Amino acid sequence: MDGGWLIAALAVALVVIGLAWRRAVAERRMLLAENTRLRREGQAAQARLAETGEELTGLAEAAFDALIVVDRERRVRVMNAAARSLFGAQETQGQSFITVARQHDLDDLLAAALSGGEDLDRQVFIGDRPFRARALPLGGEARYGAVLALQDVSELQRLGRARRDFVANISHELRTPLASIRLLLDTLLHNALPDAGMQRQLLEQIAVETEALSQLAQELLDLSQIESGQVLLKLVPIRVADLISEPVARLATQASHKRQEIAVDVPPDLTALADPHQVGRVIVNLLHNAIKFTPEGGRIGVRAAQGKGDEVMIEVWDTGVGIAPEDLPRIFERFYRADRARGGGGTGLGLAIAKHIVEAHGGRIWAESELGHGATFRFTLPAA
Ligand code: ADP
Known about the structure:
Layout: H1 3-62, E1 66-70, E2 76-79, H2 81-87, H3 97-101, H4 104-116, E3 120-126, E4 129-137, E5 146-152, H5 154-190, H6 196-227, E6 236-239, H7 240-257, E7 261-265, E8 271-274, H8 276-292, E9 299-306, E10 311-318, H9 340-343, H10 350-360, E11 365-369, E12 375-382
Parallel strand pairs: 7-9
Antiparallel strand pairs: 1-2, 1-5, 3-4, 4-5, 6-8, 9-10, 10-12, 11-12
The structure holds adenosine-5'-diphosphate (ADP).
Protein backbone atom coordinates (compact mmCIF):
# COMPACT_ATOMS: atom_id res chain seq x y z
CA MET A 1 0.00 0.00 0.00
CA ASP A 2 1.46 3.33 -1.00
CA GLY A 3 1.43 6.43 1.12
CA GLY A 4 -1.59 7.96 -0.70
CA TRP A 5 -3.88 5.04 0.14
CA LEU A 6 -2.75 5.06 3.73
CA ILE A 7 -3.60 8.71 4.09
CA ALA A 8 -6.94 8.19 2.39
CA ALA A 9 -7.72 5.23 4.68
CA LEU A 10 -6.72 7.22 7.73
CA ALA A 11 -8.86 10.14 6.59
CA VAL A 12 -11.88 7.85 6.14
CA ALA A 13 -11.22 6.26 9.52
CA LEU A 14 -10.99 9.68 11.11
CA VAL A 15 -14.25 10.78 9.50
CA VAL A 16 -15.97 7.55 10.68
CA ILE A 17 -14.57 8.00 14.21
CA GLY A 18 -15.57 11.68 14.17
CA LEU A 19 -19.11 10.82 13.11
CA ALA A 20 -19.37 8.07 15.73
CA TRP A 21 -18.01 10.45 18.36
CA ARG A 22 -20.55 13.12 17.44
CA ARG A 23 -23.36 10.59 17.56
CA ALA A 24 -22.14 9.31 20.92
CA VAL A 25 -21.94 12.88 22.27
CA ALA A 26 -25.45 13.68 20.94
CA GLU A 27 -26.83 10.46 22.43
CA ARG A 28 -25.17 11.22 25.74
CA ARG A 29 -26.67 14.70 25.72
CA MET A 30 -30.07 13.24 24.99
CA LEU A 31 -29.64 10.69 27.74
CA LEU A 32 -28.60 13.40 30.16
CA ALA A 33 -31.60 15.54 29.16
CA GLU A 34 -33.90 12.54 29.51
CA ASN A 35 -32.36 11.77 32.87
CA THR A 36 -32.90 15.34 34.09
CA ARG A 37 -36.50 15.28 32.81
CA LEU A 38 -37.18 11.97 34.54
CA ARG A 39 -35.56 13.18 37.75
CA ARG A 40 -37.69 16.35 37.67
CA GLU A 41 -40.82 14.33 36.96
CA GLY A 42 -39.91 11.96 39.77
CA GLN A 43 -39.42 14.87 42.17
CA ALA A 44 -42.71 16.45 41.07
CA ALA A 45 -44.51 13.11 41.48
CA GLN A 46 -42.95 12.71 44.94
CA ALA A 47 -44.04 16.23 45.90
CA ARG A 48 -47.56 15.53 44.60
CA LEU A 49 -47.61 12.27 46.56
CA ALA A 50 -46.47 14.03 49.73
CA GLU A 51 -49.13 16.71 49.17
CA THR A 52 -51.86 14.11 48.60
CA GLY A 53 -50.68 12.27 51.71
CA GLU A 54 -50.92 15.50 53.74
CA GLU A 55 -54.37 16.23 52.29
CA LEU A 56 -55.65 12.74 53.12
CA THR A 57 -54.20 12.89 56.65
CA GLY A 58 -55.73 16.35 57.10
CA LEU A 59 -59.13 15.14 55.85
CA ALA A 60 -59.07 12.12 58.14
CA GLU A 61 -57.89 14.13 61.17
CA ALA A 62 -60.51 16.85 60.63
CA ALA A 63 -63.41 14.40 60.15
CA PHE A 64 -65.97 14.28 62.97
CA ASP A 65 -66.56 10.59 62.26
CA ALA A 66 -64.09 7.97 63.44
CA LEU A 67 -62.06 6.53 60.52
CA ILE A 68 -59.77 3.51 60.67
CA VAL A 69 -57.77 1.78 57.93
CA VAL A 70 -56.56 -1.78 58.59
CA ASP A 71 -54.42 -4.17 56.52
CA ARG A 72 -55.50 -7.66 55.55
CA GLU A 73 -54.46 -8.96 58.99
CA ARG A 74 -56.62 -6.28 60.66
CA ARG A 75 -53.59 -4.35 61.92
CA VAL A 76 -54.17 -0.62 62.21
CA ARG A 77 -52.54 1.47 59.47
CA VAL A 78 -54.45 4.71 60.01
CA MET A 79 -56.62 5.83 62.92
CA ASN A 80 -57.86 9.42 62.87
CA ALA A 81 -58.23 11.74 65.87
CA ALA A 82 -61.97 11.03 66.30
CA ALA A 83 -61.28 7.27 66.39
CA ARG A 84 -58.36 7.65 68.81
CA SER A 85 -60.52 9.68 71.14
CA LEU A 86 -63.47 7.24 70.79
CA PHE A 87 -61.31 4.26 71.76
CA GLY A 88 -59.06 6.19 74.16
CA ALA A 89 -56.03 5.04 72.13
CA GLN A 90 -52.64 6.77 71.67
CA GLU A 91 -50.13 4.70 69.67
CA THR A 92 -52.11 2.56 67.26
CA GLN A 93 -49.95 2.05 64.17
CA GLY A 94 -49.33 -1.64 63.47
CA GLN A 95 -51.34 -2.91 66.45
CA SER A 96 -54.21 -5.31 65.94
CA PHE A 97 -57.58 -3.56 65.69
CA ILE A 98 -59.16 -5.63 68.46
CA THR A 99 -56.35 -4.72 70.91
CA VAL A 100 -56.84 -1.02 70.21
CA ALA A 101 -60.65 -0.86 69.96
CA ARG A 102 -61.72 -3.81 72.15
CA GLN A 103 -64.93 -4.03 70.07
CA HIS A 104 -65.74 -7.53 68.86
CA ASP A 105 -68.73 -6.40 66.74
CA LEU A 106 -66.51 -4.01 64.80
CA ASP A 107 -63.69 -6.54 64.47
CA ASP A 108 -66.20 -9.05 63.04
CA LEU A 109 -67.49 -6.40 60.64
CA LEU A 110 -63.96 -5.72 59.38
CA ALA A 111 -63.27 -9.45 59.03
CA ALA A 112 -66.48 -9.83 56.99
CA ALA A 113 -65.54 -6.90 54.70
CA LEU A 114 -62.03 -8.34 54.22
CA SER A 115 -63.19 -11.87 53.42
CA GLY A 116 -66.33 -11.08 51.42
CA GLY A 117 -64.96 -8.00 49.69
CA GLU A 118 -68.34 -6.31 50.28
CA ASP A 119 -69.33 -2.87 51.54
CA LEU A 120 -71.08 -3.51 54.90
CA ASP A 121 -73.25 -1.08 56.84
CA ARG A 122 -74.86 -1.72 60.21
CA GLN A 123 -75.67 -0.25 63.64
CA VAL A 124 -73.46 -1.10 66.61
CA PHE A 125 -73.28 0.13 70.19
CA ILE A 126 -70.04 1.46 71.67
CA GLY A 127 -70.68 1.73 75.40
CA ASP A 128 -74.31 2.85 75.46
CA ARG A 129 -74.06 5.05 72.34
CA PRO A 130 -75.45 3.89 68.99
CA PHE A 131 -73.12 4.21 65.97
CA ARG A 132 -73.60 3.62 62.28
CA ALA A 133 -70.64 1.48 61.22
CA ARG A 134 -69.52 1.03 57.62
CA ALA A 135 -66.70 -1.31 56.55
CA LEU A 136 -65.40 -0.92 53.00
CA PRO A 137 -62.81 -3.20 51.34
CA LEU A 138 -59.83 -1.41 49.75
CA GLY A 139 -58.88 -2.61 46.28
CA GLY A 140 -60.24 -5.68 44.49
CA GLU A 141 -60.87 -8.54 46.95
CA ALA A 142 -59.73 -6.22 49.71
CA ARG A 143 -56.08 -6.69 48.75
CA TYR A 144 -55.07 -3.41 50.45
CA GLY A 145 -57.15 -4.10 53.58
CA ALA A 146 -60.32 -2.27 54.62
CA VAL A 147 -61.56 1.04 55.96
CA LEU A 148 -64.03 1.41 58.82
CA ALA A 149 -66.13 4.57 59.33
CA LEU A 150 -68.12 5.17 62.52
CA GLN A 151 -70.81 7.84 62.85
CA ASP A 152 -72.30 8.64 66.26
CA VAL A 153 -76.08 8.64 65.69
CA SER A 154 -77.17 9.13 69.32
CA GLU A 155 -77.97 12.84 68.81
CA LEU A 156 -79.86 12.10 65.60
CA GLN A 157 -81.92 9.44 67.36
CA ARG A 158 -82.51 11.73 70.34
CA LEU A 159 -83.81 14.48 68.03
CA GLY A 160 -86.09 12.00 66.28
CA ARG A 161 -87.47 10.87 69.63
CA ALA A 162 -87.88 14.50 70.82
CA ARG A 163 -89.83 15.35 67.65
CA ARG A 164 -92.13 12.33 68.06
CA ASP A 165 -92.65 13.12 71.78
CA PHE A 166 -93.36 16.73 70.91
CA VAL A 167 -96.09 15.83 68.42
CA ALA A 168 -97.56 13.24 70.81
CA ASN A 169 -97.54 15.80 73.64
CA ILE A 170 -99.21 18.51 71.58
CA SER A 171 -101.91 16.08 70.42
CA HIS A 172 -102.49 15.07 74.03
CA GLU A 173 -102.58 18.66 75.27
CA LEU A 174 -105.08 19.58 72.54
CA ARG A 175 -107.27 16.53 72.93
CA THR A 176 -107.89 16.89 76.66
CA PRO A 177 -109.48 20.37 76.65
CA LEU A 178 -111.24 19.67 73.33
CA ALA A 179 -112.82 16.50 74.75
CA SER A 180 -114.01 18.46 77.80
CA ILE A 181 -115.47 21.21 75.63
CA ARG A 182 -117.30 18.67 73.46
CA LEU A 183 -118.73 16.94 76.51
CA LEU A 184 -119.87 20.24 78.03
CA LEU A 185 -121.42 21.35 74.73
CA ASP A 186 -123.22 18.01 74.36
CA THR A 187 -124.68 18.44 77.81
CA LEU A 188 -125.81 21.95 76.98
CA LEU A 189 -127.29 20.97 73.60
CA HIS A 190 -128.98 17.69 74.39
CA ASN A 191 -130.00 17.85 78.02
CA ALA A 192 -132.72 20.26 78.93
CA LEU A 193 -131.10 22.08 81.80
CA PRO A 194 -133.83 23.71 83.82
CA ASP A 195 -131.42 25.58 85.97
CA ALA A 196 -129.88 28.77 84.47
CA GLY A 197 -127.16 28.64 87.15
CA MET A 198 -126.18 25.18 85.98
CA GLN A 199 -126.00 26.40 82.37
CA ARG A 200 -123.77 29.24 83.42
CA GLN A 201 -121.51 26.87 85.31
CA LEU A 202 -121.06 24.71 82.18
CA LEU A 203 -120.37 27.79 80.04
CA GLU A 204 -117.76 28.95 82.55
CA GLN A 205 -116.05 25.56 82.35
CA ILE A 206 -116.01 25.90 78.55
CA ALA A 207 -114.40 29.33 78.98
CA VAL A 208 -111.72 27.80 81.26
CA GLU A 209 -110.91 25.05 78.75
CA THR A 210 -110.80 27.56 75.87
CA GLU A 211 -108.43 29.70 77.90
CA ALA A 212 -106.18 26.66 78.45
CA LEU A 213 -106.14 26.07 74.67
CA SER A 214 -105.25 29.66 73.88
CA GLN A 215 -102.51 29.65 76.56
CA LEU A 216 -101.09 26.50 74.98
CA ALA A 217 -101.16 28.12 71.51
CA GLN A 218 -99.47 31.26 72.86
CA GLU A 219 -96.77 29.36 74.74
CA LEU A 220 -96.05 27.13 71.74
CA LEU A 221 -95.65 30.22 69.60
CA ASP A 222 -93.39 31.88 72.22
CA LEU A 223 -91.27 28.76 72.53
CA SER A 224 -90.86 28.26 68.78
CA GLN A 225 -89.90 31.92 68.34
CA ILE A 226 -87.36 31.79 71.16
CA GLU A 227 -85.94 28.44 70.01
CA SER A 228 -85.52 29.61 66.43
CA GLY A 229 -83.61 32.65 67.65
CA GLN A 230 -86.22 35.04 66.20
CA VAL A 231 -86.50 36.88 69.47
CA LEU A 232 -83.81 39.52 69.60
CA LEU A 233 -82.97 40.55 73.13
CA LYS A 234 -82.92 44.26 73.83
CA LEU A 235 -80.31 44.32 76.58
CA VAL A 236 -80.22 47.37 78.82
CA PRO A 237 -78.54 48.04 82.17
CA ILE A 238 -81.37 47.96 84.68
CA ARG A 239 -81.86 47.83 88.42
CA VAL A 240 -82.85 44.28 89.46
CA ALA A 241 -85.48 45.79 91.79
CA ASP A 242 -87.15 47.31 88.69
CA LEU A 243 -86.96 44.00 86.81
CA ILE A 244 -88.81 42.29 89.64
CA SER A 245 -91.41 44.86 90.71
CA GLU A 246 -93.66 44.59 87.63
CA PRO A 247 -94.05 40.78 87.62
CA VAL A 248 -94.60 40.80 91.39
CA ALA A 249 -97.32 43.44 91.04
CA ARG A 250 -98.95 41.45 88.24
CA LEU A 251 -99.19 38.29 90.31
CA ALA A 252 -100.06 39.88 93.67
CA THR A 253 -103.82 39.47 93.14
CA GLN A 254 -103.46 35.83 92.15
CA ALA A 255 -101.32 35.22 95.26
CA SER A 256 -103.79 37.01 97.51
CA HIS A 257 -106.57 34.68 96.29
CA LYS A 258 -104.58 31.91 97.96
CA ARG A 259 -103.78 34.08 100.99
CA GLN A 260 -100.14 34.17 99.96
CA GLU A 261 -97.90 37.18 100.15
CA ILE A 262 -94.88 37.59 97.86
CA ALA A 263 -91.84 38.61 99.96
CA VAL A 264 -89.31 40.68 98.00
CA ASP A 265 -85.69 41.01 99.11
CA VAL A 266 -83.55 42.80 96.54
CA PRO A 267 -80.60 45.16 97.19
CA PRO A 268 -81.63 48.52 95.69
CA ASP A 269 -78.29 49.16 93.95
CA LEU A 270 -77.99 45.76 92.24
CA THR A 271 -78.02 46.12 88.44
CA ALA A 272 -78.11 43.62 85.56
CA LEU A 273 -77.74 43.69 81.80
CA ALA A 274 -81.09 42.30 80.67
CA ASP A 275 -84.11 42.53 78.40
CA PRO A 276 -86.73 43.63 80.97
CA HIS A 277 -89.69 42.27 79.01
CA GLN A 278 -88.15 38.80 78.55
CA VAL A 279 -86.77 38.53 82.09
CA GLY A 280 -90.20 39.67 83.28
CA ARG A 281 -91.64 36.58 81.58
CA VAL A 282 -89.16 34.34 83.41
CA ILE A 283 -90.10 35.82 86.80
CA VAL A 284 -93.84 35.62 86.00
CA ASN A 285 -93.50 31.94 85.03
CA LEU A 286 -91.53 31.13 88.20
CA LEU A 287 -93.86 33.09 90.48
CA HIS A 288 -96.89 31.59 88.77
CA ASN A 289 -95.57 28.11 89.58
CA ALA A 290 -94.65 29.13 93.14
CA ILE A 291 -98.25 30.27 93.72
CA LYS A 292 -99.73 27.23 91.98
CA PHE A 293 -97.65 24.65 93.83
CA THR A 294 -97.90 26.24 97.29
CA PRO A 295 -100.99 25.60 99.44
CA GLU A 296 -103.20 28.41 100.71
CA GLY A 297 -101.50 30.63 103.25
CA GLY A 298 -97.99 29.39 102.28
CA ARG A 299 -95.01 31.71 101.92
CA ILE A 300 -93.37 32.61 98.60
CA GLY A 301 -90.76 35.19 97.64
CA VAL A 302 -88.18 36.68 95.31
CA ARG A 303 -84.56 37.35 96.34
CA ALA A 304 -81.61 38.73 94.41
CA ALA A 305 -77.93 39.11 95.18
CA GLN A 306 -74.56 39.65 93.52
CA GLY A 307 -73.46 36.22 92.23
CA LYS A 308 -69.97 34.88 91.48
CA GLY A 309 -67.82 37.06 89.20
CA ASP A 310 -69.82 39.29 86.88
CA GLU A 311 -73.16 37.73 87.67
CA VAL A 312 -76.38 38.64 89.37
CA MET A 313 -78.44 35.83 90.88
CA ILE A 314 -82.22 35.97 91.16
CA GLU A 315 -84.13 33.45 93.22
CA VAL A 316 -87.85 32.59 93.38
CA TRP A 317 -88.65 30.42 96.39
CA ASP A 318 -91.74 28.85 97.89
CA THR A 319 -92.82 26.64 100.79
CA GLY A 320 -95.05 24.42 98.67
CA VAL A 321 -95.24 20.78 97.66
CA GLY A 322 -91.66 20.63 96.31
CA ILE A 323 -90.26 18.45 93.54
CA ALA A 324 -89.17 14.81 93.75
CA PRO A 325 -85.43 14.18 93.07
CA GLU A 326 -86.25 12.06 89.97
CA ASP A 327 -88.26 14.96 88.48
CA LEU A 328 -85.73 17.72 89.19
CA PRO A 329 -83.47 17.06 86.17
CA ARG A 330 -86.46 16.97 83.80
CA ILE A 331 -88.71 19.88 84.76
CA PHE A 332 -87.09 22.26 82.23
CA GLU A 333 -88.01 19.93 79.35
CA ARG A 334 -90.90 20.94 77.12
CA PHE A 335 -94.24 19.51 78.38
CA TYR A 336 -92.69 17.86 81.42
CA ARG A 337 -95.01 17.99 84.39
CA ALA A 338 -94.00 16.16 87.53
CA ASP A 339 -97.47 15.24 88.64
CA ARG A 340 -100.20 15.96 86.15
CA ALA A 341 -102.99 15.24 88.63
CA ARG A 342 -101.64 17.90 90.99
CA GLY A 343 -100.57 20.43 88.41
CA GLY A 344 -103.81 22.40 88.16
CA GLY A 345 -103.86 22.89 84.40
CA GLY A 346 -100.37 23.92 83.32
CA THR A 347 -98.91 23.30 79.90
CA GLY A 348 -95.47 22.15 81.01
CA LEU A 349 -93.91 24.82 78.77
CA GLY A 350 -93.31 27.66 81.26
CA LEU A 351 -89.93 26.42 82.52
CA ALA A 352 -88.72 25.48 79.01
CA ILE A 353 -89.44 29.07 77.93
CA ALA A 354 -87.72 30.45 81.05
CA LYS A 355 -84.63 28.32 80.37
CA HIS A 356 -84.35 29.58 76.79
CA ILE A 357 -84.68 33.21 77.84
CA VAL A 358 -82.08 32.90 80.61
CA GLU A 359 -79.62 31.07 78.36
CA ALA A 360 -80.10 33.67 75.61
CA HIS A 361 -78.84 36.18 78.22
CA GLY A 362 -75.79 33.96 78.78
CA GLY A 363 -77.11 32.88 82.18
CA ARG A 364 -78.02 29.55 83.84
CA ILE A 365 -81.21 28.39 85.53
CA TRP A 366 -81.66 25.51 87.95
CA ALA A 367 -83.94 24.32 90.73
CA GLU A 368 -83.34 22.98 94.22
CA SER A 369 -86.07 21.23 96.13
CA GLU A 370 -87.06 18.51 98.51
CA LEU A 371 -90.43 16.86 98.17
CA GLY A 372 -92.83 18.42 100.67
CA HIS A 373 -90.41 21.21 101.59
CA GLY A 374 -90.87 23.85 98.91
CA ALA A 375 -88.76 24.68 95.88
CA THR A 376 -86.18 27.34 95.00
CA PHE A 377 -85.54 28.34 91.38
CA ARG A 378 -82.34 30.30 90.74
CA PHE A 379 -81.08 31.97 87.60
CA THR A 380 -78.17 34.20 86.73
CA LEU A 381 -77.88 37.25 84.51
CA PRO A 382 -74.85 39.29 83.51
CA ALA A 383 -74.20 42.14 85.95
CA ALA A 384 -74.36 45.64 84.44
P1 ADP B 1 -96.55 24.00 84.16
O1 ADP B 1 -96.37 24.75 85.42
O2 ADP B 1 -97.35 24.69 83.14
O3 ADP B 1 -96.94 22.57 84.36
P2 ADP B 1 -93.70 24.41 83.91
O4 ADP B 1 -92.80 24.14 82.77
O5 ADP B 1 -93.78 25.79 84.43
O6 ADP B 1 -95.12 23.90 83.44
O7 ADP B 1 -93.31 23.45 85.10
C1 ADP B 1 -93.04 22.08 84.83
C2 ADP B 1 -93.28 21.23 86.06
O8 ADP B 1 -92.29 21.52 87.06
C3 ADP B 1 -94.59 21.50 86.74
O9 ADP B 1 -95.66 20.80 86.13
C4 ADP B 1 -94.31 20.99 88.16
O10 ADP B 1 -94.41 19.58 88.18
C5 ADP B 1 -92.86 21.36 88.36
N1 ADP B 1 -92.73 22.65 89.08
C6 ADP B 1 -92.40 23.84 88.56
N2 ADP B 1 -92.35 24.77 89.51
C7 ADP B 1 -92.61 24.17 90.68
C8 ADP B 1 -92.70 24.60 92.04
N3 ADP B 1 -92.48 25.87 92.38
N4 ADP B 1 -93.02 23.66 92.96
C9 ADP B 1 -93.22 22.38 92.63
N5 ADP B 1 -93.15 21.91 91.37
C10 ADP B 1 -92.87 22.79 90.41
